[in-house]
Automatic annotation (TrEMBL):
Protein name, entry field: ADP-ribosylation factor-like protein 2-binding protein
GO biological process terms on file: maintenance of protein location in nucleus
Listed GO CC annotations: centrosome; cilium; mitochondrial intermembrane space; nucleus
Residue ranges of coiled coil: none
Family listed: Belongs to the ARL2BP family.
Cellular compartments annotated: Cytoplasm, Cytoskeleton, Cilium basal body; Cytoplasm, Cytoskeleton, Microtubule organizing center, Centrosome; Cytoplasm; Nucleus
Biological role: Plays a role as an effector of the ADP-ribosylation factor-like protein 2, ARL2.
Keywords: Cell projection, Cilium, Cytoplasm, Cytoskeleton, Mitochondrion, Nucleus
PANTHER family referenced in this protein's UniProt entry, alphabetically: ADP-RIBOSYLATION FACTOR-LIKE PROTEIN 2-BINDING PROTEIN
Record-annotated BART domain positions: 23-134
Amino acid sequence: MNNIDILSEDLAVSKSSSKDKNFDVIVGHIEDIVVSETFQEMQSKFMNKYCTEFEDSEENKLSYTPIFNEYVEMFEKFIGDELTKRQPGFHMKDFMKQLSKRSNEISEELFEMLSSFTEFLVFKELMVDHKAFTEGRCVDFSMDLTIRPIKNVDRDEK
C-alpha cells in the first residue's frame, strides 16, 4: 500500500458526533410526522378555519395574535408529543436552538414550516398563501405540463 492509498482511505472516514446523529434522527422523525395524514389534516383544518382572517398587507391586525398563539400551541404540542414517543428525552426548545444554527442542513420547506412556530411573519405568509390557494389565486402549473416520449432520431437516417 502506498502513501496515496493511505490518504484516500483516511479521507473516506466520516466523523459524526452524537449530536449530529441525534439532530439527523430528529429531523427524520419530524419529516415523517409532517407528512403523516394526521398532521396534514390538522394543518389543513386549522388553515381553512382561519385563513380568511388574514390579508396580504403590511398591517398586522390584533386578531392575528390569538390565532398565531393557538397554532403554535397546537402544532408544537403535537410534534413534541410525537417526537417524545419516538425519541425519549426530546425537548422542542433545545431542538429549536440547534435548528437556528443548522438551518442549512434541512430542506427549505421543513425549515419554513418549523419557523412558522417561532416567527409570526412566516406564519402570516403561510396563512396568506393558503388563503390565495383556497381562493384560486395561485398559479397551478400542473395543467400546463405535457409529457411526451422523446423520439431517438439517428442523424444518419436524415
